[in-house]
Amino acid sequence: MHFQRVDHPVVQHKLTLLRDQRTRPKDFRDLLTEITMLLGYAATSGLPLRPLSVQTPVGIAEGALLVDPQPAIVPVLRAGLGMVEGMLRILPAATVGHIGLYRDPKTHAPVEYYQNLPPDIDRRHVFVVDPMLATGGSAAAAISIVRSAGARSVTLLCLVAAPEGVRVVDEQYPDVPIIGAALDERLNEHDYIVPGLGDAGDRLYGTL
Ligand code: PRP
Ligand code: URA
């Protein structure tokens, strides 16, 4: 299965606090930002560099900078917005696109309602971010949208995944790595991840 779990004690600690139903929206947002920075560290390990020498006060350092244009971060609204700040802290020169999707209450299939992507997306590595990978419908739709806009190189960053969702993305986009903090047991009859953390958008924005 094409899922890379970031197996780090600090990530697991913060994820456990975040899953706890007593965690209020402000702490939920802070924890999601902190975990995203750690997931982002793992997810960006393959970004290309170009060499650059700089003069330090003491000598010449043979360094390297990220190749321009820098990546695009594409959150899936709403809950993906909770991962933007963490990604921007490690990639402050990234650009941010947005995709609006919601799950139809009856069919649980994704419905698109908004799209705003950088025009030069074909030149950037794209990080699609969404905390929940449940049936995989939203993630697959988001990847399809960025691909149709020209993206060639895409990584999916999530917090909690269900095996069903990983399978769907894997089958449709075997070249898209999926990086997350946990692979949970299963989906329930409402297509919520078990044990998961509930509705990520509601917990982020206090709309429970
Ligand atoms: C949630 C979540 C994902 C989607 C995952 O969004 O943020 O986008 O569900 O489910 P899937 O893998 O079965 O598609 P939701 O539709 O609840 O919208 P919201 O973020 O606006 O609340
Ligand atoms: N969306 C969520 O926010 N949580 C789930 O468990 C599944 C879909």
User: Per the principal axes of the C-alpha atoms, what is the gross shape?
Assistant: globular
- The count of DSSP E runs of length 2 or more, i.e. the number of strands, is 15
Largest sheet descriptor:
8 strands, mixed
Task: List the uncertain runs.
Answer: none
- The N- to C-terminal Cα distance equals 33 Å
CATH architecture: 3-Layer(aba) Sandwich
Tally of domains = 1
* Fraction of residues in H or I helices: 25-40%
**What is the overall number of helices?**
6
CATH topology, by name, is Rossmann fold
Main features:
208 residues; alpha/beta; Rossmann fold; eight-stranded mixed β-sheet; three-stranded parallel β-sheet; 6 helices; 15 strands; 31% helix; binds 1-O-pyrophosphono-5-O-phosphono-alpha-D-ribofuranose; binds uracil
How does this model look, in words?
The protein has 208 residues and is of the alpha/beta class. It has one domain: Rossmann fold. The protein has 6 helices and 15 strands. It has helices spanning 9-19, 25-43, 84-90, 137-148, 163-172, 200-205; strands at 3-5, 49-55, 60-66, 72-77, 95-96, 98-103, 110-116, 125-129, 132-133, 153-157, 160-161, 178-180, 182-183, 186-187, 193-194. The strands form 4 sheets. Strands 1, 4, 5, 6, 7, 8, 10 and 12 form an 8-stranded mixed sheet that branches. Strand 6 (98-103) and strand 7 form a beta hairpin. The radius of gyration is 17 Å and the shape is globular. It starts with a strand and ends with a helix. The model has no long low-confidence stretch (mean pLDDT 97). Bound molecules: 1-O-pyrophosphono-5-O-phosphono-alpha-D-ribofuranose and uracil. Residues 76-79, 101-103, 108, 110, 130, 132-139, 165, 191, 199-201 line the site of 1-O-pyrophosphono-5-O-phosphono-alpha-D-ribofuranose.
